[in-house]
């Protein structure tokens, strides 16, 4: 059987998306269900099964050789389990074996959603052509993934590059992860908005207190909104600089809702990087907005499945 496609699953707290993807990263078939995130684990799995049922019903399914899953984390690729923070019904949930069964025994590759985004940006987006990259998602949370030496670096459990929970403020606020002063605790959308509100910023007549509303206020010159984005930018810069110093990345790509804030975020971020990324070998570090759209998770999961297929082919020679 000629298997020139892979199946991809993108599993998040609000939706479960699936696709059949070709070797150029084109999505040929897609399916989607809302995530019943507050339900029990088997109910959530039924939504995954419904997505897979749609994919397996396609005549193109016969050409699928592997399944890639990008899931909200934490994931454990070694154990084949997931424990997404926003899906309490899944704790050490054996997603890989369940998907393998539903997919007729195809090999399954599991990575975290941040790692999937990195795979997608490296394959087709802003990190294309860069052998050493950190790709981040800054939205409700802060996640990320690494490309090192030209290859995706998921780490043993599939979570490497999770920059949101690097501490950049030793005595900072407690983070839901249990640590203090994490990048996410300062730079996520809700934390940007919270800090602006705490310091006296007030929303407009529409009552919108999202980070996007704070970004709009910052663009209009509101000093409290500007300061909240500057603080987030400094936290991101400290985390990016630490990453660059450790593993010599040459580009950091920032996506997610906060990444769309534009120069309100990127101008202070570049400035802060000059303060934190100080050694000669990280001076040329670039930061740039992500290019992949809402399909990044699917494309990245497909990339991981294709890479696994390629490794298996090499191993079989
Ligand atoms: Zn944390």
Automatic annotation (TrEMBL):
An annotated Gene Ontology molecular function: glucokinase activity
Which superkingdom, per the lineage? Bacteria
Q: What class of enzyme is it?
A: transferase
Q: Could you list this entry's UniProt keywords, alphabetically sorted.
A: Kinase, Transferase
| InterPro entries, sorted | ATPase_NBD (IPR043129), ROK (IPR000600), ROK_cs (IPR049874)
Task: Tell me its EC number(s), please.
Answer: 2.7.1.2
Pfam families (alphabetical)? ROK (PF00480)
Which Gene3D superfamilies did the record assign? 3.30.420.40
Q: Which family does it belong to?
A: Belongs to the ROK (NagC/XylR) family.
Q: What is the name of this protein?
A: Glucokinase
């Amino acid at each position: 059987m000629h298997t020139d496609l892979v199946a991809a699953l993108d599993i998040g707290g609000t939706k479960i998306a699936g696709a059949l993807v070709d070797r150029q990263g084109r999505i040929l078939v897609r399916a989607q269900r809302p995530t019943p995130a507050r339900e029990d684990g088997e109910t959530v799995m039924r939504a995954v099964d419904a997505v897979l049922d749609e994919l397996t019903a396609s005549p193109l399914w016969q050409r699928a050789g592997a399944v890639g899953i990008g899931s909200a984390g934490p994931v454990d690729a070694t154990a084949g389990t997931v424990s997404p923070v926003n899906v309490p019904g899944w704790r050490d949930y054996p997603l890989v074996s369940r998907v393998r069964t539903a997919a007729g025994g195809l090999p399954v590759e599991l990575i975290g959603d941040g790692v999937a985004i990195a795979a997608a940006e490296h394959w087709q987006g802003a990190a294309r052509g860069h052998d050493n990259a950190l790709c981040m998602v800054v939205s409700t949370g802060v996640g990320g993934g690494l490309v090192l030496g030209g290859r995706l670096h998921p780490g043993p459990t599939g979570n490497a590059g999770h920059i949101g929970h690097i501490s950049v403020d030793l005595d900072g606020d407690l983070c839901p992860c249990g640590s203090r002063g994490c990048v996410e605790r300062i730079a996520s959308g809700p934390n940007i908005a919270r800090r602006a509100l705490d310091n006296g910023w007030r929303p407009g007549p529409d009552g919108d207190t999202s980070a996007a509303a704070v970004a709009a206020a910052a663009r209009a010159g509101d000093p409290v909104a500007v300061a909240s984005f500057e603080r987030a930018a400094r936290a991101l810069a400290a985390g990016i600089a630490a990453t660059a110093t450790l593993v010599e990345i040459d580009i950091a790509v920032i996506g997610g809702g906060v990444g769309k804030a534009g120069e309100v975020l990127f101008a202070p971020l570049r400035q802060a990087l000059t303060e934190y990324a100080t050694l000669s070998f990280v001076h040329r570090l670039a930061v740039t907005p992500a290019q992949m759209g809402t399909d990044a998770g699917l494309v990245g999961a497909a990339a991981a499945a294709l890479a696994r297929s390629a490794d298996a082919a090499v191993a079989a020679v």
